[in-house]
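As promised in the previous annual report, we have extended the structural survey to additional targets. Below is the entry for DUF2795 domain-containing protein.
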Amino acid sequence: MATVNLVQLQKNLDEVTYPLSKQDLLQYAEQRGVDEVILRALKQLPSKQYETLADISKALSGSE
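The corresponding structure token record, generated without further manual editing, is:
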């Protein structure tokens, strides 16, 4: 899985309303035009409900 900088992730997802599903997260990312690296990483996430930015970050780093 791609390595994503947490600061970069936070900047790209600064207006997300939690909790949200992977599908909602991808929709948000595509509408906002987030960084391509971030978008590719988000597409790799497991389909589940994310409660916080930390949840997303953990899933991206594979340390769930």
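The longest strand covers residues 20-21. The helical segments are 6-12, 22-32, 36-43, 53-61. These points will be discussed at the next consortium meeting with the crystallography subgroup.
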